[in-house]
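User: Here's a chain of 243 residues. Predict its fold as tokens.
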Amino acid sequence: MVKDCYKVVILSRGRWDTITSHELFPYADLVVPTSEKEKYKHTGNKIVTIPDKIEGLGGVRNWVLENYDEECIIMVDDDIKQLALVSGVQHKMINDVEYIKQVLENTYICAKDIGAKLFGFSQTIDLRKYKPYKPFSLNSWVGGVVGVIGRKYKFINNKLKVDIDFYLQNVLIDRIVFVDLRYSFIQHRYKNKGGNSLYRTEEQVKKELEILKNKWGKYFSYSLTKTTEKISVNVKRKQTLYL
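Assistant: Prediction complete.
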């Protein structure tokens, strides 16, 4: 059965008082540092502990892949608030647990059937950017809710920006990921204490962006200002037609 082939896990560190994802994914395992186990008991989720010494998103994601047996692991950030349907004339905000579970299962099946090892959802809820003739993408990077099928690839052992590198590994070798652009999970990135904010200094961000730039060259670019960081990943899957 599908439910026996995949596992949903929420990743959290230092956010026991601001975590929200447990409300949408009450059936998920909650992966937290061993020293924080007692602080997360109020969530009601099954708590799985990870050694405190494993820090940074890359290390945590790799630990999860190495310690779960399910074919598919869906890793969820701890600050997910809602699921938004962006394919209509208005947003439809979804909080129904069973509906969201079905969306995850359907997306997993679609990704597996086309041979993708990575899947996810749109990272914008801007209705103007949704194209009815393009309900899914085969070359977009994902974050927030990340589905990994199999163990073909490992995450780069960085504290931040690891999902971009993982995506580029997939499109370099398999030439495909699966992203359902009809849905977008709403989260509060960079606003809560704990999690990646423990490592998100200006120096660390720039260091890891440079690592990606040096590794991926023309396929990755970024720019930084005092208030924002703009990241661009340029991987084409369609051939240019010359007439």
